[in-house]
Amino acid sequence: MVALAASLITLSELNYAPEALEPYISAETIHYHHDKHHAGYVTKLNELIKDTRYENMTLEEIIRESDGAIFNNAAQVWNHTFYFDQFSPKPQKEPSGKLLDAIDTTFGNVDALKARMTAAATALFGSGWVWLAADRDKKLYIISKPKAGNPLTENLTPLIAIDVWEHAYYIDYRNDRAAAVKALWNIVDWKRVEERFNDIK
Ligand code: MN
Question: Containing domain of residue 128, as a range?
């Protein structure tokens, strides 16, 4: 009997050219970060889930139900797809509408939110992710997670991801993580962030 072909987890394509985010993220960083690191997590995950109960799950299901190496690689695949998708060479520069209202309520204003996320990214020891996330009532939280950590496991909806692994910034910013994070605010597309926020059911 021939086994059904398993559905492979695939590498998401970028919505922009590799050099499009310069000078904030270089084409060289995009090359290593997307084509090597992100792609590597995809390849590793597909190896790890082959012939396991995870093989026919969605990526989100794998993240919620796994731990160890499978969780780490699945979450890194999801996190990087989400991360690269939030940037644009022609971003909406500021939030508006209900998301802006929620930011003002929780953090005071947009600059205060950016400053708190940048501070959280600087304070996170080692590799990890800093997230803006929302609960079902659309209340906002800044979440710091080590390694591949992801707010999906807390039933929160991710809105913005900041990757603080050194591979995300070392080519362009060397050890200056704070400068790397501050630069991201020039290319975060708040239109995408608003779509994510408005989609919360
Ligand atoms: Mn990364």
Answer: 97-198
